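Priority: low. Protein: Probable membrane transporter protein. Input follows.
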Amino acid sequence: MSGYPLSQLIELAAWILAAGALVGVLAGLFGIGGGAVIVPVLYEVFRVLEVPEALRMQLAIGTSIAIIAPTTFRSYVNHNRRGAVIPGVVVPWGAAAVVGVLIGSVVAAFAPSAVFKIAFVIFATLISLRMFLGTDRWSLGTELPGRGPMTIYGMMTGLISSLVGVSGGAFSNTIMTLYGQPIHRAVATSSGIGVPITVVGAIGYMIAGWRYRDMLPPLTVGFVSLIGFALMAPVASWTTSYGVRLAHWLPHRVLEIGFGLFLGSAGVRFLVSLIN
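Result:
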């Protein structure tokens, strides 16, 4: 690190802190951890710091999951205080999601990342259209399903989260709205589901990257950068409460459109990465 100009390091730190502020607001507003913002920012930071390209994405994803763990937890606590969390959903969905995180770690080692990026682009496009149209024609029901389907959704949430460095809020949030749950309650519940996902995911990436420790920058534990975590996590956690307030203040339709824009932008990000 000492080989980099101080001005360049200050600029990189400023970008990380600014992204952290945005991530916190997104976590509270949409019940997501903000990994779609964190991962590309950290990827560029690690590129400048000359982290080997073969390990750069893993380090960005692992650090992202670690960063959004406290942010997601604070988002859940704030929403729960307002009584917005749907009863009986967080524990079974979160437990199944942990299994999905573990499976995703194994699958990611063998399947090409393009497969999962394409799936996310399709998913984000379809759900964004539904949010923009504001229609109930795309519906899976009027009540949340039983334990079987919920277990499947949980595993899918964990699988997606572990592969792209997010808390899974975008997926679980959308599934709940497809089952007729109000967007505000879906956002609150999604933040709770994201807590075990991010904790287990961060530990998993620490273990997965341990054997590469000699090839990674200083102050990293496996695929988690303690520097990135130290700079971004506190800011993101602090701004989460503002996103929560905004979520409960905004009209239902505005929140739907905002969530649609978020999903659309995340889909574009993955599409661009596929093209390039």
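Residues 6-275 form one domain. The longest helix spans residues 53-81.
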